[in-house]
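=== Per-residue structure ===
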Amino acid sequence: MLKYNAKTLSPPSTAEAKHMALRYILDAWEEAIYDGLDPDCIATAAIFAALSDMIATYGEEPVAVMCERLPERIRAGEFTITKTKQ
């Protein structure tokens, strides 16, 4: 459930909504790890859930095209939350 900004009484912006959604996912992820689930199992389930939902919304081909761009986005650091020094 999205919370409204108390100052403006408007729904969160797209960026705010994405940040809130990520926070929900990360909180659930931490809880699953705390409960003893293997991070690889959690990751696999999360990817499956995300792709299944996107396919239901957009169809297989558009999601496949989006997935083709994932390697370059990963290499560009788009999904890296914590930068590590090498």
Q: What stands out?
A: The radius of gyration is 16 Å. Residues 14-34 form the longest helix (21 residues). The helical segments are 14-34, 39-58, 60-68, 70-75. Residues 38-86 form one domain.
